[in-house]
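Ligand-bound model needed. zinc ion.
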Amino acid sequence: MILGIESSCDDSSVALLDIKNLKLIYHKKISQDEEHSKFGGVVPELAARLHTAALPRLIEEIKPNFNDIKAVAVTNEPGLTVSLVGGVSMAKALSVGLNVPLIGVNHLIGHIYSLFLESEARFPLGVMLVSGGHTMILNVDERGEIRLIASTMDDSFGESFDKVAKMLDLGYPGGVEVEKAAKKGHDRFKFTVPLMNDSRLAYSFSGLKNQVRVEIERLKEGGNLSEQDISDICFAFENAACKHIMNKLEKVFNERKFKRFGVVGGASANLNLRSRIEKLCAKFECELLLTPLKFCSDNAAMIARAGREKYLKKEFVKFNDLKINPRVKFDEA
Ligand code: KG4
Ligand code: ZN
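Prediction:
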C-alpha cells in the first residue's frame, strides 16, 4: 500500500491505497471548517496547530497496516507553509520509522488524479481546476506532462465564493453556503461578467466580488438584508462567476480539440458549474470526467493516488531533499 498524507490547507487527511488494484483501503479526513468559520477564513497558525493534533490521531488508526506500507506520499506543494510542514514532518518520520521511500506530491496534480481514484489514469486530458487557491485550465498530454492554458489574475473561483459568503455572514467555507442560498434565488440583480470584451485567456474574480460588495452596501442602506435578498445576490453572483468560467473555457474548446475533459478541485462540487461544463462537453463531443463529490475537496486519497504513479516510476525523494513550496507554477502551453 501507499500511505497518502494531506495537510496543505485546513484539512488533515490520511489514506491507504492498494498499489496494484487501486482500492482505497482507508481514507479519513479531519476538517477544520468549524474552527476557522468564526474568523471567516483560514487562520494559518490555527490550521498548523490543528494539523499537529489531528494527524497523529489518524496515523494511530492505520497502525495495524504499518507492515503493508511500501511508501509514504505527502503533499509538499503548493499550500500554506505552516500547514504543509505538519504533513511533511509526519511523512518524514514515518518514512524513517517504517524504512520506506518518501514521495513528494504536488497538491494540484493530486486533484487531477482525483478523477482516477480507483482506476488507471487516461491521458491526454483537458482540466478545469477550481479550488480555494487556484483557477486554472490545464492541458495534460499523453505522458502526463501538464501545461497551463489559463489562470486567474487575482482571486480564485472558490475564494470569491468564500469572500461573498463572508460579506453575507454565511460562514466559512462559503462555496457550499452560497450555492445553497443561490438555489432559492430569483433573477433580480445583474452583475457584469468579468473580462467579457477582453480577448485574454485569463480569469479575474475581484471585480465581481466588488460588484457584490457595492450591491450589499446599497441594500443595507434600506435596513437589514432579508433571506431573499441574500439568495438573490448569491444567485446573481454564482451565475456571473460560472458564466465567466464558461466564456473563457468555450474559447479554449474552440481553439483546441480535447479528447476528454476533467473538472477538479473543491469548487468543482458546484452543480451549476458542473452542468454548464457538461453541456459544453456534449456540444464539442468530448468525454467528461467528474470527481466524485466526496473527493472534490482536499483529501489524502488523491495524494496517495498521485503518489502511486510516482512509486511505479520510482520517483522517490531523499529525506533532506523533500522541500516545501508554498507556490508552484506550471509551464505555459
Ligand atoms: O480544493 P479545496 O478543498 O481547497 C483548496 O485546495 O483550495 O477547495 C476549497 C474551495 C473553497 O474556496 C470552497 O468555498 C470551494 O472550494 N467550494 C465551492 C463549493 N464547494 C466548495 N465553491 C463553489 N461551490 C461549491 N459547491
Ligand atoms: Zn485543493
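The first helix runs from residue 33 to 37.
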